[in-house]
């Protein structure tokens, strides 16, 4: 799967050159409700997450993957907040990103959520390179997901990822969501976030 001439793009204006895949990645809410993600592309995205770095190589993550049209997808979707549910049904895949926050001996895993975030970032970049788009969500029902997938206390659902094929913004029914889809992409200037001696 590759990006086509009709793919909506929102490339970042960067103050220094960065990899194309990083500049071109963005988080749409308008997804093509007919698109299916190939098994190859989905596996590659998850494989990229698997090969992420983690503290002491603990790999404190798990992913629950549901394709649109399956009970797993519906269960994940039911446990998103309402402002996400207005656009998530058209995603091809929903993934619950879960961190191991307490180890087998009951000790807190200090970097569990950090490592999970890095793994999801890897997944995102791989998916984008394969012509897909990703939208991460923190607006989730943590306890609902924990109960729905019987995760126990050591494992914490941190975010849900929507994965699919981007569609034009005007396909979004919700007006507020449509406006957000085309709003300028902004970042703090480098000088504000970097201290150099
Ligand atoms: C941890 C995390 C939680 C987020 N939660 C939500 C969310 O619940 N709903 C949503 O629409 N977007 C959510 N986003 C997407 C961000 O709003 C988006 O990444 C940010 O505005 C930057 O836009 P860009 O990804 O297009 O560069 C989340 C992103 C991250 C990384």
Word description of this protein:
The chain is an alpha+beta fold and about 200 residues long. The chain has a domain at about 35-165: NADH Oxidase. The protein has eight helices and four strands. α2 (about 40-50) packs antiparallel against α5 (about 110-130). The mean pLDDT is about 95. Flavin mononucleotide binds near residues 26, 84, 137, 139 and 185.
CATH superfamily of the domain at 37-166: NADH Oxidase
Measured distance between first and last alpha carbons? 45 Å
Which strand order does the major sheet show?
1-2-4-3
Low-pLDDT regions: none
Number of beta-strand segments? 4
The fraction of residues assigned to DSSP E strands is: 15-25%
Biggest sheet record: 4 strands, antiparallel
Highest-level CATH class of the domain at 37-166: Alpha Beta
CATH topology of the domain at 37-166: NADH Oxidase
From the alpha-carbon coordinates, what is the Rg to the nearest angstrom? Answer: 17 Å
Count of discrete alpha- or pi-helical segments spanning 4 or more residues: 8
Reported CATH architecture of the domain at 37-166: 3-Layer(aba) Sandwich
Q: Average pLDDT value?
A: 96
Associated small molecules: flavin mononucleotide
Large-scale geometry: globular
Q: What letter string, H or E per element, gives the SSE order?
A: HHEHHEHEHEHH
The proportion of residues forming helix, as a percent range, comes to 25-40%
């Amino acid at each position: 799967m590759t990006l086509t001439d009709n793919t909506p793009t929102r490339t970042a204006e960067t103050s220094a050159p960065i990899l194309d895949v990083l500049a071109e990645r963005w988080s749409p809410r308008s997804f093509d409700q007919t698109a299916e993600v190939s098994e190859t592309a989905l596996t590659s995205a998850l494989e990229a997450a698997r090969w992420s770095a983690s503290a002491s190589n603990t790999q404190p993550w798990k992913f629950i993957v549901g394709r649109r049209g399956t009970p797993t997808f519906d269960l994940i979707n039911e446990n998103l907040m309402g402002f996400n549910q207005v656009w998530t049904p058209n995603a091809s895949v929903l993934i619950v990103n879960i961190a191991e926050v307490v180890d087998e001996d009951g000790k807190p895993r200090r970097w569990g959520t950090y490592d999970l975030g890095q793994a999801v970032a890897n997944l995102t970049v791989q998916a984008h390179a394969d012509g897909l788009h990703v939208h991460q969500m923190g607006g989730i029902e943590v306890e609902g997901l924990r109960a729905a997938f019987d995760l126990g206390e050591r494992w914490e659902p941190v975010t849900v990822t929507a994965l699919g094929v981007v569609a034009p913004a005007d396909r979004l029914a919700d007006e507020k969501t449509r406006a957000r889809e085309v709003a300028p992409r902004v970042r703090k200037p480098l000088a504000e976030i970097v201290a150099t001696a």
